[in-house]
Design brief:
Layout (H helix, E strand, L loop, with lengths): L9 H23 L6 H8 L3 H7 L3 H26 L7 H14 L3
Protein backbone atom coordinates (compact mmCIF):
# COMPACT_ATOMS: atom_id res chain seq x y z
CA UNK A 1 0.00 0.00 0.00
CA UNK A 2 1.39 3.37 -1.01
CA UNK A 3 1.40 6.21 1.53
CA UNK A 4 -0.38 9.38 0.55
CA UNK A 5 1.73 12.49 1.06
CA UNK A 6 -0.18 15.70 1.55
CA UNK A 7 1.11 18.52 -0.63
CA UNK A 8 1.94 21.68 1.27
CA UNK A 9 -0.25 24.53 0.13
CA UNK A 10 1.18 28.06 0.29
CA UNK A 11 -1.17 28.75 3.23
CA UNK A 12 0.01 25.68 5.14
CA UNK A 13 3.65 26.52 4.41
CA UNK A 14 3.11 30.06 5.78
CA UNK A 15 1.39 28.62 8.85
CA UNK A 16 4.32 26.26 9.50
CA UNK A 17 6.87 29.05 8.98
CA UNK A 18 5.00 31.36 11.33
CA UNK A 19 4.67 28.63 13.97
CA UNK A 20 8.38 27.80 13.73
CA UNK A 21 9.26 31.48 14.11
CA UNK A 22 7.03 31.81 17.19
CA UNK A 23 8.64 28.68 18.71
CA UNK A 24 12.11 30.09 18.09
CA UNK A 25 11.14 33.51 19.42
CA UNK A 26 9.74 31.96 22.61
CA UNK A 27 13.04 30.18 23.14
CA UNK A 28 15.21 33.24 22.46
CA UNK A 29 13.02 35.59 24.52
CA UNK A 30 13.11 33.12 27.42
CA UNK A 31 16.91 32.87 27.29
CA UNK A 32 17.83 36.47 26.51
CA UNK A 33 14.86 38.60 27.48
CA UNK A 34 12.93 40.83 25.12
CA UNK A 35 15.46 43.64 24.77
CA UNK A 36 18.52 41.43 24.31
CA UNK A 37 16.82 39.09 21.83
CA UNK A 38 17.70 39.92 18.25
CA UNK A 39 15.69 39.14 15.16
CA UNK A 40 18.85 37.66 13.66
CA UNK A 41 19.14 35.13 16.50
CA UNK A 42 15.44 34.30 16.32
CA UNK A 43 15.67 33.74 12.56
CA UNK A 44 18.80 31.62 12.94
CA UNK A 45 17.20 29.54 15.71
CA UNK A 46 14.19 28.94 13.45
CA UNK A 47 16.37 28.11 10.44
CA UNK A 48 15.16 31.09 8.43
CA UNK A 49 16.38 34.52 7.41
CA UNK A 50 15.32 37.79 8.98
CA UNK A 51 13.25 38.35 5.85
CA UNK A 52 10.99 35.45 6.88
CA UNK A 53 10.31 37.26 10.14
CA UNK A 54 9.39 40.49 8.35
CA UNK A 55 7.19 38.58 5.92
CA UNK A 56 5.16 37.24 8.86
CA UNK A 57 5.51 39.95 11.53
CA UNK A 58 5.80 43.72 11.34
CA UNK A 59 8.47 43.91 14.06
CA UNK A 60 9.91 42.28 17.18
CA UNK A 61 7.02 43.55 19.30
CA UNK A 62 4.43 41.85 17.09
CA UNK A 63 6.42 38.62 17.24
CA UNK A 64 6.58 38.92 21.04
CA UNK A 65 2.80 39.40 21.19
CA UNK A 66 2.35 36.26 19.06
CA UNK A 67 4.44 34.32 21.61
CA UNK A 68 2.34 35.69 24.48
CA UNK A 69 -0.93 35.02 22.64
CA UNK A 70 0.06 31.40 21.99
CA UNK A 71 0.88 30.95 25.67
CA UNK A 72 -2.41 32.49 26.81
CA UNK A 73 -4.36 30.33 24.35
CA UNK A 74 -2.64 27.20 25.67
CA UNK A 75 -3.36 28.19 29.27
CA UNK A 76 -7.03 28.80 28.51
CA UNK A 77 -7.33 25.48 26.64
CA UNK A 78 -5.74 23.66 29.58
CA UNK A 79 -8.00 25.47 32.07
CA UNK A 80 -11.06 24.53 30.01
CA UNK A 81 -9.99 20.88 29.81
CA UNK A 82 -9.21 20.55 33.52
CA UNK A 83 -12.26 22.47 34.74
CA UNK A 84 -14.63 20.50 32.50
CA UNK A 85 -13.29 17.25 33.99
CA UNK A 86 -14.15 18.48 37.50
CA UNK A 87 -17.92 18.25 38.02
CA UNK A 88 -17.84 20.52 41.09
CA UNK A 89 -15.81 23.34 39.56
CA UNK A 90 -18.63 25.17 37.78
CA UNK A 91 -20.50 25.78 41.05
CA UNK A 92 -17.44 26.51 43.17
CA UNK A 93 -15.47 29.71 42.46
CA UNK A 94 -12.77 28.65 44.94
CA UNK A 95 -12.29 25.39 43.01
CA UNK A 96 -12.09 27.32 39.72
CA UNK A 97 -9.44 29.58 41.24
CA UNK A 98 -7.53 26.53 42.43
CA UNK A 99 -7.66 24.98 38.94
CA UNK A 100 -6.43 28.26 37.41
CA UNK A 101 -3.50 28.34 39.86
CA UNK A 102 -2.69 24.73 38.92
CA UNK A 103 -2.71 25.62 35.22
CA UNK A 104 -0.45 28.62 35.80
CA UNK A 105 1.87 26.52 37.98
CA UNK A 106 2.07 23.88 35.27
CA UNK A 107 3.17 26.56 32.80
CA UNK A 108 5.99 28.11 34.86
CA UNK A 109 8.73 27.45 32.32
Amino acid sequence: MQAVVEKLTPERRRELTRSTLVDAAADVFARRGFHAASLEEIAETAGFTRGAIYKNFENKEELFFAVIQRRIDAQLRRFSEVSSEDNTAAADPARLASIWEEVLGFDRD
